[in-house]
Write a structure and sequence with these properties.
By secondary structure, this protein is of the alpha+beta class. It has seven helices and 17 strands. The strands form four sheets. Strands 8, 9, 12, 13, 14, 15, 16 and 17 form an eight-stranded antiparallel sheet that branches. It has a five-stranded antiparallel sheet with strand order 1-2-3-7-6. It starts with 13 loop residues before the first strand and ends in a 6-residue tail after the last helix.
Length: 297
């Protein structure tokens, strides 16, 4: 499979080039989303791609869209390049296995985060004031502790830099109380279903984030879903609260970068071949354990 760091589809207008995905407009009502092999950490795209990463992310999202189809509609039209509009097949080398044709939805500018365990920014907030996004939590919790029940901890989507964790009250002010409640309830329902399934595969879903939008009047799930880039997946058999957990996500890369003298500002460093290889394997392991399928890159 071709390693894709940046795509070039001159027949289509480029809508956005994010940290991982390149997005093109297909007419007025559709988007072509391509997951590249870029990897980011500390809000910087690193100097080395992870070969096949975009394909793995896409296949994991497609898997979850199918699993969750009775719980929520989503933006997917097709991931089959043969079913893409005529003229795009000539870009097959950039599209095969890593792209989705989707409905263009009116996205809600809120990251919908569900947490079942205390980690990351949630752990930092808890250490500061024993709460996360305004939700009081019991005393005595540790880094990695399971929460008494999953919580909805929204974030305001920043155009650059980190998203800003906000309270539910602030969310209601930004988008209206009714929509905020719908997003909270749907986010927690999806998290509950996904975490129950993941546990059957020996994986703890520590936290995850979703993006929703409107297709007409219908609220739908968009973007990627339940991938190692948007979720913390921990092996259940090695779970021990009280510190950083082994994971199937890019925490491995962050841990390596913390050993460098890099100031976490561009330009980001390149990764050694060993780190690239081990990171690729973590993404592959996530796919295999979640889906029960093998994947050859």
């Amino acid at each position: 499979m071709l390693t894709v760091l940046q795509t070039s589809i001159p027949d289509l207008p480029l809508v956005a080039r994010g940290k991982v995905r390149d997005v093109y407009a297909v007419g007025d009502d559709k988007l072509l989303m391509i997951a590249t092999d870029r990897i980011s950490a500390f809000d910087c795209v690193l100097g080395s791609p992870i070969p096949g990463k975009g394909a793995i992310l896409t296949k994991i999202s497609l898997f979850w869209f199918d699993v969750l189809r009775d719980l929520t509609p989503n933006h997917l039209i097709t991931a089959n390049v043969d079913e893409f509009p005529t003229g795009l097949q000539k870009y097959r080398d950039q599209l095969e296995g890593r792209s989705m044709l989707v409905h263009r939805a009116r996205m809600v500018e809120i990251e919908c985060v569900a947490r079942g365990y205390l980690a990351g920014s949630g752990w930092k907030e808890y250490k500061s004031d024993q709460s996360v996004c305004g939700i009081p939590l019991p005393s005595g919790l540790m880094d990695g502790s399971r929460l008494p029940e999953p919580v909805f901890t929204p974030a305001f989507k920043a155009q650059t830099g980190h998203d800003e964790n906000i309270t539910f009250a602030r969310t209601s002010e930004l988008i209206g109380a009714e929509l905020a409640e719908r997003l909270r309830d749907l986010t927690l329902a999806i998290y509950s279903a996904a975490s129950a399934y993941a546990l059957t595969r020996g994986i703890l879903l520590a936290d995850t984030k979703f993006e929703f939008g409107f297709l007409g009047e219908q609220l739908i799930l968009g973007d990627e879903v339940l991938t190692p880039d948007s979720s913390r997946f921990w092996p259940a058999d090695s779970y021990r609260p009280g510190g950083t957990q082994p994971s199937f996500d890019k925490q491995f890369v962050r841990d390596y970068l913390e050993t460098l003298t890099w100031d976490k500002r561009p330009p980001a460093p390149e990764l050694p071949d060993e780190i690239v290889r081990k990171t690729q394997q973590k993404y592959l392991d996530a796919y295999t354990r979640l889906t029960g399928r093998s994947l050859t890159l």
